[in-house]
Amino acid sequence: MYINFQALGCRLNEAELETWANQFMQLGHQVTTEAAEADVVVFNSCAVTTQADRKSRQQIGRLQRCNPDAALVVTGCHASLNSAAVKNYLGVDLVVDNQQKEQLEDGKDFGAPRLYPGGGPQKGSGRGCRPAFVYRGDMCVG
Questions:
Q1: What is the pLDDT of residues 61-84, one digit of tens each?
Q2: Residues 6+ away with beta carbon under 8 Å from 36
Q3: Where are the chain's structural domains?
Q4: Which residue in 52, 81, 82, 85 has the most C-beta neighbors within 10 A?
Q5: Could you give the count of Cα atoms lying within 13 Å of 34 in the half-sphere of its Cβ?
């Protein structure tokens, strides 16, 4: 399975991406920097400012449009503070609250088979999208 990890916000979000990517590679998955090529996209969101909250919403929409067939997992502060709303965003398959990030850390609680019982999403319709950023560190203050 190809997984794309992205973060918006603080250094903790970036560090978590590194940890998750390493754990998933150890489980035999491929990590890709291209959201358009991923079977699963994990977005670690931010909500430390109003601007960060808005950018998190926008990035979720971009990811869904870029690769609508990928399973979209949203975690981080935006997902935790706005859980009910994020669950209803178009294309979001799983919301992982900050207090339950161990679901991602163990590398076994999500993925195409869990999100798509029919065997996983079909890649292809998201091709041609620009590569998504992996990390945006301009959100946290101080």
A1: 999 999 999 999 999 999 999 999
A2: 66, 67, 126, 127, 128, 129, 131
A3: 2-136
A4: 52
A5: 10
* Residue 94 token pair: 């799983």
Q: SS3 for 27-78, per residue? A: CCCEECCCHHHCCEEEEEECCCCHHHHHHHHHHHHHHHHHCCCCEEEEEEHH
What are the pLDDT digits (tens) for 116-136?
Answer: 344 443 443 333 344 333 444
139 Rama sector, left if φ>0, alpha if ψ -120 to 50, beta otherwise: alpha
Residue with the two structure tokens 């890709």: 32
Of 20-24, 31-35, 42-46, 58-62, the least confident:
20-24
**The total number of residues written for the chain in this structure:** 142
